[in-house]
Amino acid sequence: MSELDSIFSDDWGEDHRSGLVAVVGRPNVGKSTLINAILGQKIAIVTTKPQTTRQRQLGIYTSEQAQILFIDTPGIHKPKSVLGNYMVGVAHDALKDSDVILWILDASAPPTTEDENIADLFGRIVPGTPRALALNKIDLAEDSAGFTAHFAQCEHESALPICAKDGRGISELIGCLIPLLPRGPRYYPADQASETNLRFLAAEIIRERIIELTSDEIPHAVAVEITRFREKRRSAQIEASIFVERGSQKGIVIGKRGDMIKRIGVESRVALESLLEARVNLETRVKVQKNWRSNAEFMRRIGYRLPKRGRN
Ligand SMILES: Nc1nc2c(ncn2[C@@H]2O[C@H](COP(=O)(O)OP(=O)(O)OP(=O)(O)O)[C@@H](O)[C@H]2O)c(=O)[nH]1
Ligand SMILES: [Mg+2]
Question: For ligand 1, is residue 194 a contact (CB within 6 Å)?
């Protein structure tokens, strides 16, 4: 809770609860979708491809009784690069910092050994932290009851069925989380939904569009750096570098006669205009940074908060 100590507000009653809830699970189970749905606004990007979220992000939910600080985390997976190690490390750190763990499972797919590994991880690194379990995507599940029973058995707790896409079960989920939180103050103003700055969110939105418009290894090999971000009255000038790892990937991102980069530009601009409520002039440049996912120094330069010495 140290990052919150300085933002203390004494406007709270004895029964008010607050704290950090780490939202964790396999990639693509709907963690970011859920946080956006709880907050009623987009603070995290969402795509159909796994391993979208790469950095920790705070989503702040405020009601009369509680302030829940949701930490969106990268999906826990077997890492294959410095970036992968970093992402899994971000999820581990969020678990260690949290007052409550919210474990998300995908009701539309059978449980995997990855889910079991995650359960083991909780036992190893945060055995005492209270935990809630939510079974997401119930709209796609034919028999979520069997799935729920399976996990209830091995976890000794019941999973709450939810649908982050249409909001079903979300108020019940909030109702389950609040009693698990410690008593505490409201740390942020009631109308603040995140700590994310617009520059970071702009880079994420461009990355989101690229992930959705490309396939195979491209989504994982893309990084976006905003090199200029100027807002003036009702317009904004944004310049972005799009990094890939190889010349062939650059060719794909640019596309035949520049078709793909044009489409990325148009879709990103539309999304940025709605985010900023301003007219946006977006310039993009595609660059090759060989094997950047294994280059800690480069990753730090473009904004990943890697520790000075690599994690194992
Ligand atoms: N049908 C359905 N799809 C959902 C639901 N929740 C999320 N999705 C979809 O699942 C995909 C992944 O959602 P994300 O929110 O990006 O998943 P994530 O867990 O944050 O993924 P990573 O950041 O990669 O770990 C997207 O296509 C979402 O639209 C749901 O309740 N129902
Ligand atoms: Mg995510």
Answer: no
Q: Is the beta carbon of 118 within 6 A of some atom in ligand 1?
A: no
**Structural domain for 82, as ranges:** 2-180
Whole-number Å distance, alpha carbon 37 to ligand 1 midpoint, is 11
Predicted confidence (pLDDT) per residue in 54-105, tens digit? 999 999 999 999 999 999 999 999 999 999 999 999 999 999 999 999 999 9
Residues, the chain: 312
Whether residue 261 contacts residue 252, with contact meaning beta carbons closer than 8 Å, is answered with no
Q: How many domains does the structure of the chain reveal? A: 2
Position 229 in a domain: yes
Strands across the sheet with 235-244, in order?
A: 223-232, 235-244, 279-288
| Cβ(201) – ligand 1 distance below 6 Å | no
Please tell me whether residue 279 adopts helix, strand or coil conformation: strand
